[in-house]
Amino acid sequence: MPTYISLLNFTDQGVKTIKDLPARLSAARQLMASRGATLHSYFLTMGQYDAVSIVEAPDEETVVSLSIAIAGAGNIRTTTIRAFTEEEIPGIIDKLP
């Protein structure tokens, strides 16, 4: 299943309600599972982004709809990128001219 990395920034609301983060993560995991996706890791980070998540999902449409639904709660803004696993690298390299 494709892997996606989301770079997250908390909104003002997200910072004000940060103590609710464990419950929000639990709800996000349940939502993702209901759509065939898995939240593998979630990290609070320092620097440009407040948090990073690693998700596996069946396709890009699923990831986009999940990102919109989760960000729609008003606690985060996301930038999501497709990540290729170490196991996928040989297939990519094999397609080089």
Written description of the protein model:
By secondary structure, this protein is of the alpha+beta class. It has a single domain (about 5-85), classed as Lrp/AsnC effector binding domain/regulation of amino acid metabolism (RAM) domain (Alpha-Beta Plaits). It has 4 helices and 4 strands, in the order βααββαβα. It has a 4-stranded antiparallel β-sheet with strand order 2-3-1-4. Strand 2 and strand 3 (about 50-55) form a beta hairpin. The mean pLDDT is about 95.
Task: Write the CATH homologous superfamily.
Answer: Lrp/AsnC effector binding domain/regulation of amino acid metabolism (RAM) domain
How large, in whole angstroms, is the Cα Rg? 15 Å
Q: Distance N terminus to C terminus?
A: 26 Å
- Total count of helical runs of at least 4 residues: 4
Structural key phrases:
about 100 residues, four-stranded antiparallel β-sheet, alpha+beta
